[in-house]
Amino acid sequence: MLDLILPLECGGCGAPSTRWCETCSAAIQVAQDEPHLATPRLDPGVPVFSLGRYAGSRRQAIVALKEHGRTDLVAPFAHVLATGIHHLHNWGLLDLPLTIVPAPTRRQAARRRGGDPVARVATAAVAAHPDIVVVSALRMKALVRDSVGLSTSARERNIAGRVLMTAKDLPCDRDVLVVDDIITTGSTARESVRVLQTAGARVAGVLTLAAA
């Protein structure tokens, strides 16, 4: 009866009667050699890693999570993010204890989405790990435009100087990993890293769910 009133469909492919199908689950799983290095046009000065391409089921699921309120997709993305963090640690690229800082989002977008989906995914990913904490240490200033459709130079101008540090007690004696949903030009990542490093944070890298 509920399916007739509010039809279920997979957040990745739209398959009926399921919120997340096995095919889409397999499509976003993290392989043994992932995450891979990404090369955004604007270099943030630290390694940037991506868990996959912004395409197919991964793209559709990220859009559903961000724009359509599909909070049920937090769990599968939290799983792949946790696996990616685990691999980076095993490869010696991250030390514990670790602080995860979600990339900043526009306040207007966060209000429309009922919160920050990246912060939700990150928090769920490390909920059971006592040596990893999530600190929402960054925020966007007002009047930052939506970056969709902007060129690389326009994105850079749009974000420059508009990321602010909000956490006054961010630990400076541990690795910090910036986490975001998508890496495109690298403008948000670069400004986020700059602000964190200016505050004394030891930024080890950036990890994203997808690379466009």
TrEMBL record:
Domain spans labelled Phosphoribosyltransferase: 162-210
Highest taxon above the source species: Bacteria
UniProt similarity note: Belongs to the ComF/GntX family.
The name this protein goes by in its record: ComF family protein
